[in-house]
Amino acid sequence: MLNSKAVADNFWDKDESWLRSKLRDLMGPVRAFIRKVKRAFDFAVHGWNSYDWDYGYLLELIEFKLRRMQKEIQNGHHVPDKATDQSIRICIKLLKKINGRDYHYFAGLHDEKWGESELVWHKIDENGQEIPNGASRLEIKRPKAVTPEEKDQERKEALEAYRKDDAQRERDVRWLFNIMAKYHQHWWD
């Protein structure tokens, strides 16, 4: 004899799995649409606060995207790989440093030695003649550079300090893009 309870349980199990399958089929595109709208909004907010004419905004966009990728990778949407996590983390740190424009170590030492610079705009040239068309001449003064010899020495040291600071920044930019060139193909699921 046929067990009616077993048939009923089996029927509901089938029906429930069928229902789950259909709901999953229906909800998958809805979830994907919601994720895409949220992602589009996040990028729109980022794009709204950015401009097309400055490299800094490009670097901010790269940092923004890498942070999103890092979050997804940490949330399990990637096969765990120490090199992937580490390379993205280093790139984010470098982008933050480069975007922060915090490359003033040697310039700071120069300021300690010669004093803070003062920018003075002159409406006349070195010969005492008025500069035409409303233009002006810039003079950078330092409190501890008084004599012409000290001013020359200060200018030479300033240029060297700025060159060293720029070299540090360029080193970090090269390091960033070398890491990206080497590891970017591993940054996927």
Fold and architecture overview:
The chain is mostly helical. The chain folds into two domains: 1-49; 55-116 and 142-186. It has helices at 4-48, 55-74, 82-100, 105-114, 148-183, and strands at residues 118-122, 137-141. It has a two-stranded antiparallel sheet with strand order 1-2. Helix 3 packs antiparallel against helix 5 and helix 4 packs antiparallel against helix 5. The longest helix has 45 residues, at 4-48. It is elongated and about 95 Å long. The two termini are 53 Å apart.
**Class inferred from helices and paired strands:** mainly alpha
**How many whole angstroms does the radius of gyration measure?**
31 Å
Strand order of the largest sheet: 1-2
Number of structural units classed as domains: 2
The portion of residues forming beta strands comes to: 5-15%
Number of helices: 5
Mean pLDDT: 86
Fraction in helix: 55-70%
- Major sheet, described briefly? 2 strands, antiparallel
Approximate shape? elongated
Oligomer: single chain
| Number of extended strands | 2
Question: Which series of helices and strands comes N to C?
Answer: HHHHEEH
Secondary structure topology:
Layout: H1 4-48, H2 55-74, H3 82-100, H4 105-114, E1 118-122, E2 137-141, H5 148-183
Antiparallel strand pairs: 1-2
